[in-house]
Inverse folding.
């Protein structure tokens, strides 16, 4: 039973309710509040803070490595691949132009795709197609994108001596980025209520009612569902599957040579420096079914694979693994990577399935979601 005071403040109906305070939810609030400054926006988040992938990712500001994009070109064709790259590039540009890059530790150190010693055929094939890829991407980046780097051995690992360098790639601090957007939207009047897990959505022509775990009904004229890897519990028929990504981080390594962002195995493994620690993640492709999970835990199988790769990358360094964690991404059942941005009715919009480069696409996904409302 609520008091009059509560129903006229904390739980009063709003114009827009957003489920989920990850990057997509936060940015939906940002775009909506900019577009409709007098409307009341409230975000409902199950966790004490953003509790999905947005604060648990690797912090790559990236738009695709050569072999990954060549795979996409084969599967999707030029139009869809380029549309996706453009969304990522625009998204990263949005962060840089909206916030001070120093405030979210953005650093354009460049990125590399590197290869194992046994992968010379993959490198040679990709080299043959590099000019074609550069021609396609130059109109989006306004500059040549990828070059062959013939001195990968300077990083001190036993890997293939040639790789690809992309000077446009950078790294960022995802936690700081979320907090910046959080601060910006609160200044626009957006409310964020934490500890609210929505279990059911009821939708009539002029109202959306969200029932939380305690049975309380939150009401609004419109709603955006930004629950990414947890969407299935609200919409079991949606082609959105959870996909866990695991990470480990070493202790500080004073002589660390890997400075930048690095992709290996078509992006299924990735690593970067965080100051002088190495953060290494991925390996989901080695246990696809096991990692189709929304449990925020790590598994011995994937962590062992990560540690094995760490030995190749840091053959002579002294370090220990200081931290391990996982986060939940979302893909389609057949590994579809395109986001699902769709009006499910006149007043209910879905903005989910952000895939593995969701930091980059969240600004465009959320803009598209908000544009679905009149
Ligand atoms: C390990 C890992 C590494 C990654 N690395 C990168 C990278 O380097 N670069 C990159 O671009 N992308 C990366 N990604 C992907 C990127 O993090 C995601 O695509 C992006 O953060 C998705 O944002 P989102 O807001 O859509 O989803 P999320 O951040 O998952 O947010 C969804 C929110 O909804 C909340 N929620 C869910 N269900 C409910 C409910 N029923 N009621 C209330 N709240 C609910 C959750 O608690 C969560 O806060 C990585 C992901 C992982 C897991």
């Amino acid at each position: 039973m609520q008091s009059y005071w509560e129903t006229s403040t904390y739980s009063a109906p709003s114009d827009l309710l957003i489920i989920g305070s990850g990057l997509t939810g936060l940015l939906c609030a940002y775009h909506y509040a900019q577009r409709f400054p007098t409307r009341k926006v409230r975000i409902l988040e199950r966790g004490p803070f953003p509790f999905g992938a947005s604060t648990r990712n690797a912090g790559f500001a990236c738009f695709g490595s050569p072999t990954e994009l060549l795979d996409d070109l084969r599967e999707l064709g030029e139009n869809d691949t380029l549309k996706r790259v453009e969304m990522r590039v625009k998204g990263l540009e949005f962060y840089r132009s909206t916030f001070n890059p120093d405030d979210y530790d953005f650093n354009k150190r460049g990125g590399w795709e590197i290869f194992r010693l046994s992968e010379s055929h993959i490198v040679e094939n990709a080299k043959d197609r590099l000019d074609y890829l550069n021609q396609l991407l130059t109109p989006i980046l306004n500059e040549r994108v990828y070059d062959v780097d013939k001195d990968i051995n300077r990083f001190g690992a036993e890997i293939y001596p040639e790789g690809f360098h992309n000077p446009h790639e950078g790294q960022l601090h995802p936690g700081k980025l979320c907090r910046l957007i959080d601060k910006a939207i609160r200044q626009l009047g957006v409310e964020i209520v934490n500890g609210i897990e929505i279990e059911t959505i009821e939708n009539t022509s002029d109202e959306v009612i969200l029932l939380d775990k305690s049975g309380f009904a939150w009401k609004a004229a419109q709603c955006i569902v930004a629950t990414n890897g947890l969407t299935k519990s609200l919409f079991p028929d949606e082609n959105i599957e959870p996909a866990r990504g695991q990470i480990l981080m070493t202790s500080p390594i004073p002589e660390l040579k890997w400075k930048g962002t690095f992709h290996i195995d078509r992006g299924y493994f990735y690593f970067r420096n965080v100051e002088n620690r190495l953060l290494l993640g991925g390996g989901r492709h080695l246990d696809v079914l096991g990692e189709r999970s929304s449990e925020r835990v790590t598994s011995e199988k994937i962590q062992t694979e990560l540690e094995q790769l760490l030995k190749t990358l840091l053959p002579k360094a002294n370090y220990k693994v200081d931290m391990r964690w996982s986060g939940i991404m979302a893909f389609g059942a057949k590994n579809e990577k395109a986001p699902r941005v769709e009006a499910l009715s006149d007043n209910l919009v879905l903005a989910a399935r952000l895939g593995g480069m969701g930091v980059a696409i969240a600004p465009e996904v959320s803009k598209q979601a908000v544009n679905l409302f009149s």
In short: The chain is about 30% helix and 25% strand. The two ends are 34 Å apart (CA to CA).
